[in-house]
Design brief:
437 residues; 14 strands; 4-stranded mixed beta sheet; elongated; 10-stranded mixed beta sheet; alpha+beta
């Protein structure tokens, strides 16, 4: 593109639209190095003033008065100064068609100070500036760019993000992160409202539940009453929310055990999500001290990323598990029968229809799950304790009592007596250290 082409486009734009220095310069943002859009716009207007001074000399004052008036009205200084010098008249300058006259260095400074104060209050280490345009601003910007051409222009979003972002970095000493910022400050144009997206803090670890009748999340009945006095969610929230000055604390676990089952042994992997924290970095030893409880204990292994929520739920949650179940038999059973029970569930596929106890909230479907092995750990009269190593998703209680034939095969069917699961413990996940079977 030649110099004449550049000047022709700038003239065309200003003859049709009132544009501030920023919005004119932005049409040529990819030209020139180490220049701001304000400098580009001002330079173009200055050159146009010089071009029209030459036209005046060549054509006389009357030849370009109309064009120069429009340029002065749409462009402001120094075109207004030239017009007044030649014709002795002041020109009222119209507001910029794109930004309404908002953009300026002082505005960028003001926004940067505001964003910086928010970042200090939010204990942020990294940040990102975003921009959300009102539809009318976006439409006007595109309209002007279509007239001049898109080849060398940039958006108003890019300019505001860049100018405010570099000022924030200078004020705070923080570096912007384009992949995982602690805080995203979204500036709304033209209202100048600053919306803050505070990214959660994530912690990985596992929990052990040594008590029974503890739900995963608060269990509230239809009439608004609590069914169980404690949940793992509330335990974690009550200990961490105040410390992080957060709005809430959520847990994402690798599945969940029944309310009346314990989670012991290696514990259940989980990711803790701290929502909108005002503090972000707290020593793990301090956190682990707070998370030591009676019936519930959480042990944190480190800070992590949001992708680990999916890893925990989709990967770890599907790993094979080991259970211990205390079973009351309906009659005496011989040693041979107990050995037969172990042999029957060596790499055995089990078909289970949705258990009767959860039919009210789940569809009635048939599923196949694998039992890898069963070992009878102890026998006391009609009480047996069995270890079950099985595929994730197996309903262990129904494996014991058959659920009126909805689970096949099952303990009761193999032993030939009624079998009632009295206590169920999850010992851990296959592959986690410290789990022997």
């Amino acid at each position: 593109m030649s110099v004449d082409d550049v000047m022709g486009r700038a003239e065309k734009a200003l003859l049709k639209y009132p544009l501030c220095d920023h919005c004119l310069g932005r049409l040529f943002a990819k030209m020139g190095r180490e220049l701001g859009n304000e400098e580009r716009g001002r330079a173009l207007k200055t050159l146009l003033s010089m071009v029209y001074d030459l036209k005046l000399r060549a054509a006389g004052e009357g030849g370009v008065k109309g064009e120069l008036y429009t340029l002065a009205k749409h462009g402001g200084e120094p075109l207004t100064r030239l017009y007044k010098r030649v014709y002795g008249e002041d020109v009222a300058v119209d507001k910029c068609y794109v930004c309404g006259g908002l953009l300026s260095r002082s505005l960028f400074d003001e926004l940067a100070e505001r964003v910086s104060s928010y970042l200090r209050d939010l204990d942020a280490s990294t940040f990102l500036v975003g921009v959300k345009l009102e539809q009318s601003v976006l439409e006007h910007e595109l309209e002007v760019a279509r007239v001049v051409g898109f080849d060398y222009s940039e958006s108003i979003k890019n300019e505001v993000k860049r100018e405010v972002g570099k000022r924030v970095a200078q004020i705070t000493g923080l570096q912007p992160s384009f992949t995982n910022p602690d805080v995203v400050a979204i500036i709304h144009i033209p209202s100048l409202y600053v919306e803050l997206e505070v990214k959660p803090v994530y912690l990985r670890g596992y929990y052990v539940k040594t008590g029974r009748n503890i739900s995963h999340t608060p269990w509230i009945t239809r009439d608004g009453a609590r069914k169980y006095p404690l949940s793992i969610q509330e335990f974690v929230d009550s200990r961490l929310r105040g410390l992080f000055k957060a709005d809430a604390v959520l847990i994402h676990a690798a599945g969940r055990e029944d309310v009346d089952a314990r989670m012991v042994g290696t514990g259940r992997p989980l990711v803790i999500e701290v929502v909108r924290p005002r503090r972000r970095r707290i020593d793990l030893s301090e956190l682990n001290t707070l998370l030591e409880g009676g019936a519930v204990t959480v042990r944190l292994e480190g800070y992590t990323q949001p992708r680990d929520k999916r890893v925990v739920k989709e990967n770890l949650g599907k790993k094979a598990k080991v259970y211990k179940v205390l079973v009351l038999l309906g009659g005496e059973v011989s040693e041979d029968k107990l050995r037969q029970l172990e042999d029957s569930f060596q790499d055995r596929a089990v078909t289970q229809r949705t258990p009767t106890r959860v039919l009210r909230r789940k569809k009635d479907v048939a599923r196949r799950r694998k039992v890898y092995s069963v070992k009878v750990a102890s026998v006391k009269g009609r009480l047996i304790e069995a270890l079950i190593y099985c595929e994730s998703g197996l309903y262990v209680k129904e494996l014991v009592h058959c659920d009126n034939g909805r689970t096949d095969p099952c303990f009761a069917g193999v032993l030939g007596v009624q079998a009632v699961p009295l206590e169920l413990d999850v010992l851990g996940f296959a592959g986690r250290p410290g789990l022997d079977f």
